[in-house]
Amino acid sequence: MNDFIHTFFDWSQIKAVLPSLLSEGIWNTLLIASLALLLALVLGLLVAILLISPNRWVRLPGRIYVDILRGLPAILTVSLVGIGLPLAGIAPFGQSPLGYAVVAVGLISAAYIAEIFRSGIQSVAAGQAEAGRSLGMSYLQTLTLIVVPQGVRNVLPALANQFIVAVKESALVYLLGLSVGERELFFIAQQRQAVTYNSSSFTAAAMCYLLITIPLTYAVNWLDRRLRDGRDRRSVPAVLAPDPVGGEPALLSATGPAMVLDPSIEGTS
Amino acid sequence: MTITPVTSGPHIELREVCKSFGSAQVLCDVTADVGHGETVCVIGPSGSGKSTLLRCVNLLSAPTSGTIRIKGEEITPTCADLNAVRTRIGMVFQSFNLFPHMNVRHNITVPLRRVLKLSKEEANGRADTLLARVGLSGLASVRPANLSGGQQQRVAIARALAMEPEIMLFDEATSALDPEMVKEVIDVMRDLADSGMTMLVVTHEIGFAREAADRVLFMDNGVLTESGTAEQMFTEPRTRRLQDFLSKVL
Description:
By secondary structure, chain A is mainly α. Chain A has eleven helices and no strands. Chain B has a six-stranded mixed β-sheet with strand order 6-7-8-3-9-10, sandwiched between helices. The chains are: A mainly alpha, B alpha/beta. Chains A and B meet through helix 6, helix 7 and helix 11 of A and helix 2, strand 6, helix 3 and helix 5 of B.
């Protein structure tokens, strides 16, 4: 029992590693996760727009991207991007592994986020796209002004959740070897463990991850609840409070699942 | 308002329009005209193809065969200016289809700004004029979810009218409303019919068809079974199917 406590909860070890975890690791972890998410949001939305196209040849590249990136272990993708690319002479970020880490984690997240966006966009009632088209708006205008904003709102909690995943996946950068100053949480803990043969540094890193992920998890749940039942309640003048029947949002009463990109309403844009 | 020169031919011409979804034929050789300024109501049992017929007029559904002409110009799903054609044809849906993420004014101004390229001031001015016309001044900054069904549908009508269309299509515009809200929407539609708008109206409101329609089309099973003036159709229906239908709804 003493061995167990000594291995995982050696206070002196934890105290020794904690300053660099908090001053260096946590920020680099958050930096990698944030930049990766940013890349993933942009790329994911583009892929999602491919995925919902009525044209199968447009859908195909999106589908291939998602299938491959979701089908590979994250550690393999990180290796391919972070180790493989520089070896092949493609080194836009030079020797610094941080850029490759962001790209690798971002590419993986983009595949999941594309599917999140796709489901959100397709959950928007078909009548919304029809209304846009009937007003003379083009396919792209209808998509960007009407359908996507509603679809994104539907999936905000799932997107926030993807940030938590990115925080955790950022640990895989340790594969690429980081120099002092750019080390993230896991790398610092792992280096320390290698020197001391004591796992308390892992425990300290674990606490740091939980410090980020647990509040985020609760924030996601809160956001989810708010979007579910708090919709539009802020700006309601009391006199206009909806009656139970007539006030039902038109969106929800529209029948059937959305086929936003039903070719029959596509026409030319 | 764009002045539409009165031409001699009909405003909307449907010639042998057919529509199939897979093996199910929903419209079968429908031929009909709607004259300039005419209000034509389409009645018939559920699933008879009324809505599909209406959706073919602005090509939300593309006909499988047959031709549709607006003022003598044929429109097809591949014609280059389909969006331009649609701006000339307003449509009001059963489920309103207001954009829930925008307030009432924004719902009206988005197509004005993005499609007609109006300035912000012009668009807002037009929105306010139209909201006054449907009796909803003062609700411009409210989100659709906070309006009653009748109010939402009137906003939807205002949104379509703001584009200054020459034709208005109504697809069961009152079917999703509580009975006490039907009247406020019907009143707006009646005013519009009186103002000389060309209207094609799919409706279950026999009362409206009887009072406001210049002509009535009766659809049954995808076939245009009978047509005539409202008076003629409701007092002396010729076909057995229309007699049966009227005996159920009147």
